[in-house]
Write a structure and sequence with these properties.
The protein is of the alpha/beta class. It is built from 9 helices and 7 strands. A 7-stranded mixed beta sheet has the order 3-2-1-4-5-7-6, sandwiched between helices. Helix 1 crosses helix 8. It is globular. The structure holds S-adenosylmethionine. It catalyses: malonyl-[ACP] + S-adenosyl-L-methionine = malonyl-[ACP] methyl ester + S-adenosyl-L-homocysteine.
């Protein structure tokens, strides 16, 4: 299961967010639904929902495919899914070391998970190992413009890391290219969510479990003074209506494992 200290911390933040996740997951619902038209039409498939979280999409996929397995690194998320969704198969597992045999899976669906995986080459290798030839990996992730308003507001206060390092699209494309895999389709979209204030944004990120920031030097909450300076800097982005925007750059993609 979680193999590194960083993954243990990621699993712990998602554990803690289990009960607040669904009410905060407006971006996740939107991006996950936009992947649906890319899914194959055949029913008789074995499908993984990788990083299934509270199982909203695992349940939806279970209505479309014969065998759907939710996989997550967080045991609390899995327990929540077990008790709230109509889902037959759930497995604790880490995306880098999936508990499945080579060439055994037809489709891997994954919504807003792989931004938590630093080593994309290692991740894609593992996904291609378990997919059957001709099998598909259909996914969304977040790119580096995500939370640019928050990142730039913090940058005016200190040089610590307050937002995770999201990959650039070129990182994804060049990793695939170096391994000889091809994106058969992809799409990038900026989704701008609206908040009442910066505290509302911070609470939503915490409610989603997205508040663990690897490589942050100073743990815990920032002091009151720093927080006030950051929220002051965020005013530059506030719209005339008083709405606080936050940008999420969503990358959706599909990779098909070559037949040979
Ligand atoms: C933002 S949530 C998305 C949940 C779900 N896919 C959805 O659309 O609502 C990310 C999920 O990925 C899981 N996760 C993060 N890193 C993982 C890894 N290395 N292996 C498996 N699951 C992971 C987290 O525990 C969390 O449940």
């Amino acid at each position: 299961m979680p193999n590194t200290l960083n993954q243990i911390k990621i699993a712990k933040s998602f554990d803690l967010a289990t009960n607040s996740y669904d009410v905060s997951a407006r971006l996740q619902r939107y991006s996950g639904k936009h992947l649906m038209p890319w899914l194959p039409q055949e029913r008789q498939l074995t499908v993984i929902d990788l990083g299934c979280g509270t199982g909203f999409f695992t349940e939806l996929l279970s209505g479309n495919f014969e065998r759907v397995i939710g996989v997550d690194i967080s045991n609390k998320m899995l327990n929540y899914t077990r008790s709230h969704r109509k889902v037959d198969h759930l497995v604790a597992g880490d995306a880098y070391h999936l508990p499945f045999q080579d060439n055994s899976i037809d489709l891997i669906y994954s919504n807003l998970v792989i931004q938590w995986c630093d080593n994309l080459a290692h991740l894609f290798e593992e996904l291609m190992r378990v997919l059957k030839p001709g099998g598909r990996f259909v996914f969304t992730t977040l790119l580096d413009q995500t939370l640019s308003e928050l990142k730039s507001s913090w940058a005016q206060v200190d040089d610590d890391k307050h937002v995770i390092d999201f990959k650039k699209d070129i990182d994804i494309l060049s990793t695939l290219d170096s391994q000889g895999w091809e994106l058969t389709c992809h799409h990038v979209q900026d989704v701008i969510l609206e908040y009442e204030n910066v505290l509302h944004l911070a609470r939503e990120l915490k409610g989603l479990g997205a508040n663990h920031v690897p490589k942050k030097q100073h743990r815990g909450l920032a002091g009151k003074d720093k927080w006030q300076r950051m929220t002051q800097a965020y005013q530059d982005f506030v719209e005339p209506s008083g709405v606080y925007p936050a940008t999420y750059r969503v990358f959706s993609g599909q990779i098909v494992k070559p037949l040979k």
